[in-house]
């Protein structure tokens, strides 16, 4: 069973927003056994939307359309879908009440255009949007399902998980799809591929392997699809068991549905341990990655971003002499930062970063891309020096990923 | 002149990565007057890629293909393009030298698969990739341009700005496209639309208006496209001058190509002023947003993420009695946090956030979604209380945006 995603909105095509909805949809659909055949982003333009709907209907069984459901003139998805289904718009009483409820809650005056949010194609089943005024709409044609959803991410996400997926499950029987992703660090994509070539060549036809290199890591993703869930899971596990001894030296862990920082958090909570972070060159990125996850206050005590060199001295207690002797981007300073932030927050673990993310040299003579990362525990401190290249975004991203890997390694020792 | 983007890779369709390349391409192409007709994401599968190429060739003059150029077996873009152009692969000496140079720099052994990176279609013009081993490839067919680029963002970006765009400019004449985006805060999309309806209806046909609501803000984007650059710019400015008096109370500023945090940074640097941040519920997001921009060390002194309540007392000097009296999520605590962080970092301005991002209640009884944001200067401190709803991601995002708006307002007073 295949689905296709159509995202509508000029803002996507002119690059004003990044389309994150499609990744969410891809992930959620895969979980229940629906592959995404194609993602198509089109303009707020009637003939283009009609063409995309027609092509999607040819390729897929389920067509998910997001965006273009706002109350203003540039939003034309609803009228276009109505035309595609040769239908008329009718007022839905429940949607109207939902719109009125939302406007009275926010004490905003209810305008005619807002009431128009309650107009839906007569043939559609309404998916009530409890987080906004634009309802989801479910339509069917020749056994194919079309779902139109608002483009606002949290409204779309709630509609998908609470209504679209349960409805699809009730209506169709899906094959089982599973993905297993293995994180490696330290070997390039091609060297890794050469090393495991014999294993890869012997994978059964229903298991596909992909290499995903990103910011210093290579992720190996196994994707399997078949009717029998138990058999697929056993075979994937058997293949992983064959693979692991060959990549022991570079294996970091598995990436479940959760990110490495979520996994670290989970593990720290289970251990009853806590974390603090002192970030210079990563500028808050590490803290933000941890706190983005719900429940992070159970292990994350906090962080400091001592961006200016003076604040490393004054607020983090790094001796001026140490900075003068070694420079602010050095092993000695990184280790002192990790130890001091750990004491300040009275945490079990601490991470620190100091480096030069570029593009210009900062308060140190270190080459652009040089980063020192340290991990401190009650008993010891370790650190490593890296060069993450000359692109600021990359340096910050790779330093963050590396800090996660280093911390995970220390945690797994326990 | 229209372009189409094809992004290749199963990882996009299963939602393992978010496609950020397309937004970059959309933005860069728009700057030089090329509209993106469609973005299509397809699987690593030959027949599907061939179909996408054929459809794109029908719609667009320029086809940009990203992804699928790695050295491993799952990367099939190069072979597929070769087939589409009825061509053969030949070894390019310059690319081979580039590959050898990169491998010798990182002291990695050069494998046969890596040497295969130097195989390119015989009809293509090579776009040398100075940041990686997979070259860009420029091909032409019936007056249409096809460019295949690696999917690694920083490799792709460098090839686009340094080679693809200069080549396109040399070969074609483009119309002038401009976008002007006006930021508003405080009025809903539909209320705004009703207020400016007469103005919108009188826009000339070559100026298009879009409403972009996001996390509490509504952005109004004017897009204009015509041959004559001067006339277009004058007309857009004239329309903006007609609009502004109607939205005076909600107008925040313009969004140039740069984000609001980049504009704030630019302005602080021009004023010779500095900033520090104390973030509780935003958990590092504000700091990270500032430090993501190059040159931020010229105004950003640093930040503290006092996530645990105890660290607000110990590290930020918030009196325990104040927290007990008002609770940790309160106006009094937010204002003290902003004042104290400003003193600690000796900055001119400071931002603080304290709130409950959910999903569960934290160290305070405040309702999920409650956030207090304060701005401190040498002379005064102000704060506001908000409720940003019950979705964690939203609460953090809206609190961050609101903090930027509040700070910008204070800075503009000077």
Annotate the secondary structure layout:
2 copies of one chain form a homodimer.
Chain A: E1 2-8, H1 10-13, H2 21-31, E2 35-42, H3 46-59, E3 62-66, H4 77-84, E4 89-91, H5 93-105, H6 112-115, E5 119-121, E6 125-127, E7 136-141, E8 144-149, H7 153-171, E9 176-185, H8 189-195, H9 197-201, E10 207-214, E11 217-226, H10 229-243, E12 251-255, H11 260-271, E13 275-279, H12 285-291, E14 300-305, H13 309-314, H14 320-326, H15 331-345, E15 349-355, E16 370-376, E17 381-387, H16 392-413
Parallel strand pairs in A: 1-2, 1-3, 3-8, 13-14, 13-15
Antiparallel strand pairs in A: 4-5, 6-7, 7-8, 9-11, 9-12, 10-11, 15-16, 16-17
Helix pairs in contact in A: 2-7, 3-4, 11-16
Q: If you had to describe this structure to a student in words, what would you say it looks like?
A:
Two copies of one chain form a homodimer. In chain A, helix 2 (21-31) runs parallel beside helix 7 (153-171), helix 3 (46-59) packs across helix 4 and helix 11 packs parallel to helix 16 (392-413). The model of chain A has no long low-confidence stretch (mean pLDDT 92). Chain A has 414 residues and is α/β, with parallel strands linked by helices. Chain A is built from 16 helices and 17 strands. Chain A folds into three domains: 2-171, MoaB/Mog-like domain (Molybdenum Cofactor Biosythetic Enzyme, Chain A); 176-254, 2-Layer Sandwich (Alpha-Beta Plaits), CATH 3.30.70.2860; 260-412, Alpha-Beta Complex (Maf protein). In chain A, strands 2-1-3-8-7-6 form a six-stranded mixed β-sheet, sandwiched between helices. Helices cover 41% and strands 26% of the residues of chain A. Chain A is globular, with a radius of gyration of 26 Å. In chain A, strand 6 (125-127) and strand 7 (136-141) form a beta hairpin. The first copy, chain A, has helices spanning 10-13, 21-31, 46-59, 77-84, 93-105, 112-115, 153-171, 189-195, 197-201, 229-243, 260-271, 285-291, 309-314, 320-326, 331-345, 392-413, and strands spanning 2-8, 35-42, 62-66, 89-91, 119-121, 125-127, 136-141, 144-149, 176-185, 207-214, 217-226, 251-255, 275-279, 300-305, 349-355, 370-376, 381-387. The two termini of chain A are 44 Å apart. Chains A and B meet through helix 1, helix 2, strand 2, helix 3 and helix 6 of A and helix 1, helix 2, strand 2, helix 3 and helix 8 of B. Strand 2 (35-42) of chain A pairs antiparallel with strand 2 (35-42) of chain B, so a sheet runs across the interface.
